[in-house]
Amino acid sequence: MRGLTIVNILSILAFVSGIPQDTASPSLVDPSIETPATEVPPSDSSLSKRASNSDFPSYIIGVVCETNKVRKQNNLPPLQIYAELNTLAQKHTQYMVDIKTLTHEDAEGTLGTRLSRDKVKWSFCAENVASGFLEPAKVVEAWMNSPGHRANILNTRVKAIGIGNVGNFWTQNFSDFASGFNFDGYEPKC
């Protein structure tokens, strides 16, 4: 983790009681934001539109559509689904289920460490996690009602999103990429 800056925005555990919830004990953990040790300027990537909604599980489409809906309401561009972020989010979500707790670090490290290990040239990344929600709309609503998580969703730097879900545990990963790094992304039809 040397060289990474991790900023935990603020604790919202006390705030969760006022959020509409799917189960009796939903919870969120402070969102995570990282930048590489050497800041790389954001880039405009060429995105592929070869995929379709049916190429992704419905929970991914659901969370991304809800996320893009609130981004549109805030005059922000939609995020593209990036398969590598989905894979990392799904593995991280399974890890949280296995240890029965919310966290931004797993055996492989933080999101930034995981992206770097997989040779993804990122310039910015952030992560939201939650548990206790069964529906995509409810977990996005909970994140939007938390200032730190909302900041990640409405961040102007991010271009890509990945979603993980196991039961009522969720991970939402965001990234922008280093100049010259091309990624295939897909904007779902919502």
Task: Give descriptors for this structure.
CAP_dom; disordered N terminus; globular; alpha+beta; SCP domain-containing protein; signal; 5 helices; 190 residues; 8-stranded mixed β-sheet; Pathogenesis-related Protein p14a
Descriptive account of the structure:
Helices cover 29% and strands 22% of the residues. It is of the alpha+beta class. The protein has a domain at 59-175: 3-Layer(aba) Sandwich (Pathogenesis-related Protein p14a), CATH 3.40.33.10. Strands 1, 2, 3, 4, 5, 6, 7 and 8 form an 8-stranded mixed beta sheet that branches. β6 and β7 (169-177) form a beta hairpin. The chain starts with a strand and ends with a strand. The model is unreliable at 1-25 and 37-49 (pLDDT under 50).
Produce a short descriptive summary:
It comes from Smittium mucronatum. The protein is α+β, with helices and mostly antiparallel strands and 190 residues long. Helix content is 29%, strand content 22%.
End-to-end distance = 37 Å
**Average of the residue pLDDT scores:** 80
Q: Approximately how much beta-strand content do the residues carry?
A: 15-25%
Reported for the largest beta sheet, the result is: 8 strands, mixed
Helix content range: 25-40%
Number of helices: 5
Give the full name of the CATH homologous superfamily of the domain at 59-175.
CAP
Radius of gyration: 15 Å
Q: Let me know the number of strands.
A: 8
Uncertain ranges: 1-25, 37-49
CATH class of the domain at 59-175: Alpha Beta
